[in-house]
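User: Hey, my collaborator sent me this sequence without any context and asked if I could get a structure. I don't really work with proteins. Can you help?
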Amino acid sequence: MTTVLIADDQPLQRFGFRMLLESQDDMTVLGEAANGAEAARMTAELHPDVVLMDVRMPGLDGIEATRRIVAGGDRTRVLILTTFDLDEYAYAGLRAGASGFLVKDAQPEELLAGIRAVATGDAVVAPSLTRRLLDAYVHHLPAASRPEDAPDPRLASLTDRESEILRVMGQGWTNTEIAERLHLAESTVKTHVGRILAKTGSRDRVQAVILAYDAKLVKPA
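Assistant: No problem. I've predicted the 3D structure and written it out in structure-token form, which is a compact way to encode the shape of the chain:
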């Protein structure tokens, strides 16, 4: 059973989400929050698998709420909801530690699939969309605190093959594309991706792609 907390300042929107989620045999809604402060507090109390997080809410917004939830070290994953697919707030949410984002006009089955994916530790952003998103907002990345030619210490434990795969992940390649182009079994690619996440401390694929940008393995188009 996947447990969900709904965070949205619109009562009708929360009602719609609750109706959809509770129609599923494998989901249950633990509660509803009308702002970011409530979402962060209720997450600490209820420990949901997934928080469905609106961005624009009064007081504490969804970005800062996401940052607090992730910083709290809880196993809860955050799925950002945004109005536009290249909204800068969606980018900020990913930087804050969200496991993905969906647009609010997504089909019900897309939302349900997204929640299930996030709950199992996957990231809910198509690889090509991740690349487009980061290319659009890469100027928000903080300036590196190390010399330009110094290696990023987070990559130190990666093998050459893992570094190569992280680089092409950042370029938007799917696991299938990586397997085909690098002549690997897809199961092998999945194993490499899992090791990359573990070694770099990335919560999911999106965070690994952001790392590839941070470490300058990938440059914006």
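In plain terms: The chain has a mean pLDDT of 85. You can pass these tokens on to your collaborator as they are.
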